[in-house]
Structures are given as C-alpha cells and as structure tokens.
C-alpha cells in the first residue's frame, strides 16, 4: 500500500529519514518544498505510523490517483474507488486541498467528490452514506496539486499529529512539535549527550528530544485517531529508560514555571532556569548540543533588539558548544551574519505557517 504524509514544507527530507530509520516504510517520492513524502507500508502499520512518526502532520492511505483538468475528471476518479470498507452506519466528509491554477475551487472539489463517494457506495453496498462535515467517522482527503489528483483515507483525523496533548501550559507562541522533533533529528543529538535550549519558552524542543530518546509514542497523551474506526490499534508500548541531560534557559519566570508544569505532567527530568540566552557561557562550562527557536523581530522597532540578542547569543554559544547549534528563525539575514563569525553553517528554507523561515545547522 502507498501512503503519503504531510510535513511542514522544507522538512520533507527529515521526515523521509525518520520513516526509513524507524523501518516503518519504503520512501518512494519526496516532494521538496511541497510538504509531502510518499512511501510504501502495510495496512497493519497504520497505528505505528501515527504513534511514532514525530516529524509529520498526517498519515494518509492513498485510495486513488489520476490527472485532473475538469470536475468531471474528479468525479470519475473518485467514483472508480471502492469505498465498501466503510460501515453503512458511519458518516463521511471530504477535505479538499488545491494548489495551482484551476477554473474551480476546493469547495467544488469537495462537492463533486462527495457525490462520487455516495454514488460509488450506493453501487457497491446499495445504501446512501451519510455526510457529516463537523464530526465525520471517515475523512476522505482530496489533494489537487496542478493536475495531480490524489484521493486518500485520512488515518490521523482533522487534528494533525502536532496535537500532542501534553502541553498543560500554553505558551503564547508555541513551536510546532513536529518542527521541534525535526530540529532534534537534524542535530544528530542522542540521549548520551547534553542538550540546551537557551530560549526554551515552554520547553517543546526539550520535551520532544526526551520523548524521542525514550521512544514515547504520541498516543501516550493523545487517544483520538481516525484509524481507530476501522483498525483495533490499542496503544501498547514500552518506553526506554534512559538518563537525560536536558537544560532549558528562559527569560520569563511564568514560562519557566509553565515548562516545569509540563515536565511534571509527562514525568521527564528537565532542568529549567530563568536566565538570558546571551549569558549561557556564564551558566554552563560546556554543552554538547544547542537547539533553539529564538524570537523573531517581526516589528521593525525590535530589529535592533533582535540583532543584539542573536549576536550575543551566538558568541556565548560558540564558547561552550562542543558539537553544533541548530536554530530556526525568520530573521535569516541577521542570524546568518553573526553565525558565520563563529561556525560553518548549513541552511534550509522552511515554510512555517505563512512565514518563510530558515533552519541553520551550525558546526
């Protein structure tokens, strides 16, 4: 069977490596910059894919694929799919996504595809499937990118896998956990080494690192997955017992307390302290890895503040880091300007929401 996963655009290669390294599938196509990775896997691995892929947003089983120019093509491709696996008592909904120039909208795709599902099901099962747009039992994804049309069964649900459900404290600007996990993978960090986030906010990067090291599945804190309607995928797992050397520095006391609250909730030993990223060389003699999501100066008045922060932080980091620094920021020119003074850098463009950011790997 062929699946695709959605990913924050720019981090597709990280997700592909995770799929391969965890032996959950054979990658067959990476759509760089498009937020899609295609791979072969087994139906019975659907629970594992949802539980253990930490860098992806969604797992979709492909049901049909074809070239589309008109809505008639949409109807034809969808109607040819056998939907008889759906229980006649269940409801369904179409979720459409369209990229490119077309003379119809995503709403049109949903309408036509929905009619095709109903007609196909009536032909095979003799009954009409119910539509429920708010809380469907089954979600059918219809993705049209230029003329490439993919119909798939959403095994994750309307809430993507970034909804981990362990953040009992809500930071005003939290980092997407799938990005946090991707940064950890990019860094090459392992649990034997020390890890510092000097601008840690509520600690997402550190918590994701710890869960990767302990092999904690997403289902430990989240129980709602779409596939549970058609697969008995009870969450059985055994975490690894590993010693962690995780450190977080945060400027604001309320965020330190919030991060400590999360650490207690997930039972993870992370050492948090209130402090400034510019002074980490005063707090630590040496650290193996630094991974962080520094603030962005989106308002012009903050540009000089951001420049001073980045300059001082990178200088301090260069004095204590033994392996590398990994950071994601929208202030790409400022970060690169000062990172070059102390490190050899690699960089990757990442579209985070509607913002173009860049991940820097500094050795």
3D architecture notes:
With 363 residues, the chain is of the alpha/beta class. The chain has two domains: 2-154, VC0802-like, CATH 3.30.2130.30; 177-230 and 238-362, Vaccinia Virus protein VP39 (Rossmann fold, 3-Layer(aba) Sandwich), CATH 3.40.50. It is built from ten helices and 15 strands. The chain has helices at 12-21, 46-52, 71-79, 106-125, 177-187, 204-214, 253-266, 280-283, 303-320, 332-342, and strands at residues 2-6, 26-31, 36-40, 58-67, 91-99, 130-131, 138-145, 148-154, 194-197, 245-250, 271-274, 287-292, 321-329, 345-352, 355-362. The strands form two sheets. Strands 2-3-1-4-8-7-5-6 form an eight-stranded mixed β-sheet. It has a seven-stranded mixed β-sheet with strand order 11-10-9-12-13-15-14, with helices on both faces. Helix 9 links the parallel strand 12 (287-292) and strand 13. Helix 3 packs parallel to helix 4 (106-125), helix 5 (177-187) crosses helix 6 (204-214) and helix 9 (303-320) packs parallel to helix 10 (332-342). The radius of gyration is 22 Å and the shape is elongated.
């Amino acid at each position: 069977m062929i699946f695709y996963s959605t990913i924050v655009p720019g981090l597709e290669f990280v997700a592909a490596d995770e799929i391969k390294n965890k032996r959950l599938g054979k990658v067959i196509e990476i759509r760089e910059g498009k937020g899609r990775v295609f791979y072969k896997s087994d139906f019975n691995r659907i629970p594992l894919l949802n539980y253990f892929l930490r860098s992806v947003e969604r797992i979709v089983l492909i049901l049909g694929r074809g070239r589309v120019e008109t809505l008639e093509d949409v109807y034809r491709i969808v109607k040819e799919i056998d939907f008889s696996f759906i229980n006649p008592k269940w409801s369904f909904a179409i979720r459409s996504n369209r990229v490119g120039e077309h003379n119809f909208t995503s709403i049109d795709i949903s309408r036509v595809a929905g009619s095709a599902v109903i007609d196909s099901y009536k032909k095979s099962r003799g009954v009409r499937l119910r539509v429920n747009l708010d809380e469907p039992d089954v979600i059918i994804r219809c993705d049209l990118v230029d003329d490439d049309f993919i119909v798939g069964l959403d095994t994750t649900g309307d809430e993507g896998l970034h909804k981990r459900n362990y953040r009992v404290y809500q930071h005003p600007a939290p980092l997407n956990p799938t990005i946090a996990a991707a940064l950890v993978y990019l860094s090459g960090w392992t649990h034997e080494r020390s890890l510092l986030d000097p601008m840690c906010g509520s600690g997402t990067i550190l918590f994701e690192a710890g869960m990767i090291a302990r092999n904690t599945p997403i289902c430990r804190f989240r129980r709602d997955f779409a596939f549970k309607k058609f697969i008995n995928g009870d969450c059985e797992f055994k975490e690894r017992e590993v010693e962690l050397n995780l450190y977080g520095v945060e400027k604001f006391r309320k965020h330190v307390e919030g991060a400590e609250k999360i650490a207690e909730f997930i039972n993870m030993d992370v050492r948090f302290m209130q402090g400034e990223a510019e002074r980490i060389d005063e707090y630590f003699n040496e650290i193996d890895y630094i991974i962080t999501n520094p603030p962005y100066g989106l308002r012009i008045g903050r540009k000089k503040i951001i420049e001073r922060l980045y300059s001082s932080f990178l200088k301090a980091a260069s004095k204590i880091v033994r392996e590398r620094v990994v950071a994601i920021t929208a202030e790409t020119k400022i970060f690169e300007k000062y990172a070059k003074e102390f490190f050899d850098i690699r960089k990757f463009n990442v579209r985070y929401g509607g913002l173009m950011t860049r991940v820097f790997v500094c050795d």
